[in-house]
Specification:
By secondary structure, this protein is α+β, with helices and mostly antiparallel strands. The protein has twelve helices and 13 strands.
Amino acid sequence: MQQLKDDRTIPTLAHHFDVENAENSARLLLNHFRPHLSQQLKEEKLIITEFTGGVQNKTLAVYFPSDRRNKTLIKVYGADTDRILDRAGEIRTRLMLNEHECCGKVYGLFENGMCYEFVAGQTMTFENVGNDHCSRLIIRKLVDLHCVNRTASEDELQVFDAFKKMSGFLELVPEAYKDEKQQRQFVEYYPNRDIFAKEIEILREHLTDSSIHSPKVFCHNDLAYGNIVYDKEKDCANFIDFEYAGLNHQAYDLANHFNEFAGVEEYDYRRLPSRDFQISWLTEYLKCWNKVDCSAGHSNDESAVTDQQVQSLYFIVRKFALVSHLFWTLWSLTQVGHSEIDFDYLRYGKQRFDEYNRSKPETLSMKNVFFP
């Protein structure tokens, strides 16, 4: 058992999951963490499928032919990802979110990953994440998540400081990559590597402007459509993968969600939502947010969503969109030469940095006309 800071314990197993021999490892984990399945393990074939689209970890679904809905998920951590992620913090976050009905149960931990509850449904795609119905479901769930910090104890809450993390990422980027092809690609994309520290400081300074104020709430911080599950039976949206979840500026979570419309494996900036879409989406978000604020004893009224509120939020979200682009640019550079997943991190990082540079002049020059 692993002892957490708040005296809770979680089952553990001294086993290194072998992806090349996944069935044996999966059987061992199920016998240990879900012993009520031991008889089925003796009688039935075990089906193992790998989720596609992950660019940091490998996630497997394990189940029996007779009960395909009762899946167990196994996440095998990507190589060296503990350099950039607080795995113990992630577990505390998952346990806390499970108590708030925002996350599935963690069954147990093994040396290079975790075993946890399957969230029923289908992951969203670009084709449905932006339709009116799915947008409303996502907004409701996101408002619920953004309110978690109101009832959670302070020691349960991780903190997501984008600027601190970006500076940390930058320290992990080597002077030169060991692979010559990757090094040539890096130099081609980024002739002056010193530019990153400069850009971090430009954004940090810019966001100190008093007109760019966004409250701290509990954020997902990685709300790509692949991390959103639609449960058709219950007609609701659920979120998965909480590695980066923590207290952060509300506007960052909203901006990052919009940025993720462009995709990951096939990044296409033309998919980024239009201003009209964002205004409509943010209006619905504010209605939901104000309703929760009102029920919590705040003075906001659900019906009192003004054009000023929406335009101000849109202005702030646009600013944080730059932070999101720069964050994932630097994240991608830390994965090069370490990840065992077949993904062109350098190319993805360049695409995010190109969009950052394309939108930066207009975004930095934007003024909040409603700020006194």
